[in-house]
Design brief:
With 295 residues, the protein is of the alpha/beta class. It has helices at residues 15-28, 57-62, 69-86, 93-113, 121-127, 136-145, 158-168, 213-216, 255-265, 277-294; strands spanning 10-11, 33-37, 150-157, 175-180, 182-184, 190-193, 222-227, 244-251, 268-271. It has a seven-stranded mixed sheet, sandwiched between helices. Strands 5-6 form a two-stranded antiparallel ribbon. Helix 3 packs antiparallel against helix 4, helix 5 crosses helix 7 and helix 6 runs parallel beside helix 10. The longest helix is centred in the middle third of the chain and has 21 residues, at 93-113. The mean pLDDT is 94.
Length: 295
């Protein structure tokens, strides 16, 4: 069907079913399409070309020399403990969730205690190793050109995401970014985080699902969903009237340990693939089909 689906990084449990979903997306064209995506390690890389780890939005803050060393040590210990719980294949999401709340809450509290300032955000992103996947900008530009809505749903730090998009990619009118946004006082000092906490396993509970976002897009009943965590599968639950959902999972870490669960959950699993080749090939065919229909 698509040459990109034969890449060595591609895994599918049910190829026939996946190709049927893609066929339906192509037939629907760009007018019926919307995209819902995670940010960290989905739109951005897990490892750079030299094999070094890239930064998440949180890590961009954690590694900044603007913050004290004891902060880095504290959040590193938190990650060492709670990340193992996040990816444990033997625990249910319900069992993991309270641990995620503790992790994120404690990390936020430590950041507040460090005196984080609003004016540091641009420098943190500039110094960071937040790297968008190869071909990501093409996808952003194509979705914008065809006015396809892109919901970026992240458990990261929204202020860092926005800065990274503006500086290293593009932030277009068709994009909406739901995330954890910092709350600064009039002096630019961090005093908390706005709204309800977004962590990796509660993306189905966010206010976006109770808003009119998905309702206003009811005519766009075909969805491409992209994520790197099983929790990301719940990002589009507010789109109740969807006809076809293509779930693309980026498996970046602990591959052997998590392969089975990812194959069960995602239609396409991309293993250690730092590109957007597969999603872009699908989007390219959808938009090309829209042109043919228009003509």
């Amino acid at each position: 069907m698509l040459p990109e689906l034969s890449k060595e990084t591609v895994r599918m449990k049910d190829r026939q079913r996946t190709e049927e979903i893609i066929k339906n997306l192509l037939n629907g064209g760009s007018e019926r399409l919307q995209v819902v995506s995670d940010f960290d390690m989905t739109l951005t890389k897990f490892r750079d070309k030299d094999g070094s780890l890239c930064d998440s939005s949180y890590r961009a803050i954690e590694m900044s020399p603007l913050l004290p060393e004891d902060y880095r040590m504290t959040v590193a210990k938190l990650k060492e403990h709670y990340y193992a719980i996040e990816i444990d294949p033997h625990m249910s999401i319900e069992e993991k969730t309270p641990h995620m709340v503790i992790w994120y809450t404690e990390a936020h509290d430590h950041l507040i205690k460090c005196g984080m300032r609003k004016q540091w955000i641009s420098q943190m992103v500039k110094d960071s190793r937040i790297v968008f996947r190869d071909g990501c900008n093409w996808m952003f530009e194509c979705l914008s050109e065809y006015k396809v809505p892109l919901l970026i749903f992240s458990a990261g730090v929204g202020d860092i995401l926005i800065e990274a998009l503006q500086c290293r990619a593009v932030l277009s009118d068709n994009m909406k970014v739901v995330s954890n946004y910092m709350d600064f006082n009039q002096d630019g000092l961090l005093v908390g985080f706005q709204g309800e906490l977004v962590h990796v396993f509660n993306k189905n509970e966010n206010a976006i699902h109770d808003s009119n976002y998905f309702g206003a897009l009811a005519h766009r009943d075909n969805i491409i969903l992209m994520g790197d965590s099983l929790g990301d599968l719940r990002m589009a639950e507010g789109a109740a009237a969807c006809s076809n959902v293509l779930r693309i999972g980026f498996l970046n870490d602990k591959v052997d340990q998590r392969m089975s669960s990812y194959l069960d959950a995602f239609d396409i699993v991309l293993v250690n693939d730092e590109t957007m080749d597969v999603p872009n090939a699908i989007v390219r065919c959808i938009t090309a089909n829209s042109l043919r229909v228009a003509v």
